[in-house]
């Protein structure tokens, strides 16, 4: 299961992480977000650094990163946003993206 990030944990677990981290901005009422969830959870099970931010509960993070549509997936490396994907993405595309930043 993918880790749930909060405003309190985001800095240490995402921005100061070693290697790439994929963050899925989502909401429980969003059907495309529900479609995206299994791929994100599978990546976590395979050992990739991935997590989720619930935009309803962590609106400050959604505003900080200007997330206007969900699902939005942001890839961070060395504390910087490197990639932004909007809409449902395949697990294979996401794993390839993560691998390209290792």
Short structural summary:
The chain is an alpha/beta fold and 102 residues long. It has helices spanning 7-15, 31-45, 59-64, 91-100; strands spanning 3-4, 21-26, 50-54, 72-77, 80-86.
User: Helices and strands, in N-to-C order?
Assistant: EHEHEHEEH
> Class by helix and strand content?
alpha/beta
Can you tell me the residue ranges where pLDDT is under 50 for at least 5 consecutive residues?
none
What about the largest sheet? 5 strands, mixed
Number of distinct helices: 4
Describe the structure.
The protein is α/β, with parallel strands linked by helices. The chain has a single domain (3-100), classed as Glutaredoxin (3-Layer(aba) Sandwich). The protein has 4 helices and 5 strands. Strands 1-3-2-4-5 form a 5-stranded mixed sheet. 29% of the residues are buried. The model has no long low-confidence stretch (mean pLDDT 97).
């Amino acid at each position: 299961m993918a880790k749930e990030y909060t405003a309190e944990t985001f800095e240490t677990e995402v921005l100061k992480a070693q290697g790439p981290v994929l963050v899925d901005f989502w909401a429980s009422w969003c059907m495309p977000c529900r479609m995206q969830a299994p791929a994100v959870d599978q990546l976590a099970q395979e050992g990739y650094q991935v997590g989720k931010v619930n935009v309803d509960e962590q609106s400050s993070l959604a505003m900080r990163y200007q997330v206007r549509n969900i699902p939005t997936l942001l890839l961070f490396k060395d504390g910087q946003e490197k990639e932004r994907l909007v809409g449902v993405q395949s697990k294979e595309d996401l794993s390839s993206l993560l691998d390209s930043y290792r």
